[in-house]
UniProtKB/TrEMBL annotation:
Superkingdom classification of source: Eukaryota
Lipid-bearing positions (S-palmitoyl cysteine): 3
Annotated region (Disordered), positions in chain: 1-46
Amino acid composition bias (Polar residues), ranges on this chain: 32-42
Name this protein carries in UniProt: Protein XRP2
UniProt keyword terms in alphabetical order: Cell membrane, GTP-binding, GTPase activation, Lipoprotein, Membrane, Myristate, Nucleotide-binding, Palmitate
Organism: Seriola lalandi dorsalis
Database matches in Gene3D superfamilies: 2.160.20.70, Nucleoside diphosphate kinase-like domain
Stored SUPFAM superfamilies: C-terminal domain of adenylylcyclase associated protein, Nucleoside diphosphate kinase, NDK
Compositional bias per record (Low complexity), positions renumbered to this chain: 21-31
Domain C-CAP/cofactor C-like: 45-200
Membrane topology, from the record: Lipid-anchor
Gene Ontology molecular function: any one: GTP binding
Biological function: Acts as a GTPase-activating protein (GAP) for tubulin in concert with tubulin-specific chaperone C, but does not enhance tubulin heterodimerization.
């Protein structure tokens, strides 16, 4: 069914820091004029751990009522906190940091870039928005005319929204890879084209996919050179994007697809990126990717005859799977596997007659595993 090679990988252990509480002893000398300690107004107040925390100003985590400006937050300013954007008009907004959740309310004619969001991104009552978004959950309600370059770990949802267009996330800034990890997001779990319309209208399409050749910077320009973000080295070149560019739900160009799976090791992500670069340089197309954990019974169901040799490898961590498409892609992938990844544990479809079954079997399992 498939071919594979093996390589041992090393694990890492983590140490927990021991913290022992400290106590302070106050000594007093008894005199006839002594004031009881509890009433001594000169004594410094006790310091508790919550007193030492840096005070948080809610205004640092909000953008409200702005017009015709370039604003946002640089890396390190949010550090995983919640963020709110509301009542902004004709603004360029750049959030080059990771956050917990972001809500965007009542904004009109804005261009927005949001760094990785651990939880949800929720647009409400917005109109004429162009944005680049990476998040766990994406939702809109009562929105009109939005163009979204999206990386979303779950199924994006639109509700009472019209004129919605979606493309695959294509963006880079130097800290973006670290921000994905901080937000707990995988660059390989992107359901950008699998939209669920919560309020469909018979005979109408509330959403569609952007043209395949759509360029991010034509929708969301780079920061103004006069702004505080001028020093951030951004790129929207698909070849530099942190998230791999996938064809998603668009019609495939060929009937031949190949399943290529990397099992956990020291360089799994880097190897997957190398493969993508290699096959796309040869003219093949990346359709979809997934990073998911598997159990022994999952391996037997998905990989069938090849399962016995693969079971031990799924205990080392998640697998990264890719669907590649194009005439001759199966033979090309088998050659690449033997030439570039001979010391790495991989699974590759064995022939084009069974490769479609391989693809369907794995990605159906992955979608069920992730609740899609």
């Amino acid at each position: 069914m498939g071919c594979f090679f093996s390589k041992k990988s090393k694990g890492k252990s983590s140490d927990k820091e021991d913290r022992t509480p400290t106590t302070t002893t106050v000594e007093t000398t008894a005199t006839s004029n002594a004031v009881p300690l509890g009433n001594n107004t000169d004594e410094a107040p006790k310091q508790y751990s919550w007193d030492k925390r840096e005070k948080v100003d809610p205004k640092d985590y909000m953008l409200t009522g702005l017009k015709d400006v370039t604003v946002g937050r640089l890396s390190g300013k949010l550090n995983g906190q919640q963020f709110v954007i509301q009542e902004c008009e004709n603004c360029n907004i750049f959030v080059f940091d990771h956050s917990a959740t972001i809500t965007i309310d009542d904004c009109v004619n804005c261009r927005i870039v949001l760094g990785p969001v651990k939880g949800s991104v929720f647009f409400r009552d917005c109109k004429d928005i162009k944005c680049v978004v990476a998040c766990q959950q994406f939702r809109t309600r009562d929105c009109k005319k939005m163009e979204v370059f999206l990386c979303c770990a779950t199924q994006p949802i639109i509700e009472s929204s019209t004129g919605m267009k979606f493309g695959c996330f294509q963006y880079f800034y130097p800290e973006l890879g670290f921000h994905f990890k901080d937000a707990g997001l995988s660059i390989f779990n992107n359901n950008w084209s699998n939209i669920h319309d919560f309020t469909p209208v018979s005979g109408e399409n509330n959403w569609s996919l952007l043209p395949e050749a759509a360029a991010v910077l034509d929708f969301v320009p780079a920061p103004d050179p006069e702004s505080e973000f001028k020093s951030v080295r951004i790129s929207a070149d698909p070849a530099r994007s942190i998230v791999p560019l996938t064809k998603g739900g668009r019609r495939k160009d060929s009937e031949e697809s190949c399943l290529f799976v990397f099992f956990a090791g020291e360089y799994t992500t880097a190897n997957a990126r190398r493969l993508i670069d290699e096959v796309t340089a040869k003219g093949f197309v990346l359709i979809q990717t997934k990073e998911v954990s598997m159990r022994p019974e999952d391996v037997k169901r998905v990989f069938q005859n090849s399962a016995e040799d693969l079971v031990e490898w799924i205990t080392k961590g998640p697998v990264i799977a890719l669907e590649l498409n194009g005439d001759g892609v199966v033979d090309a992938c088998k050659n690449i596997a033997s030439e570039m990844f001979s010391g790495t544990m991989v699974f590759v479809s064995d022939n084009k007659n069974t490769s479609s079954r391989d693809v369907d079997s794995f990605f159906n399992f992955a979608d069920m595993q992730m609740g899609l």
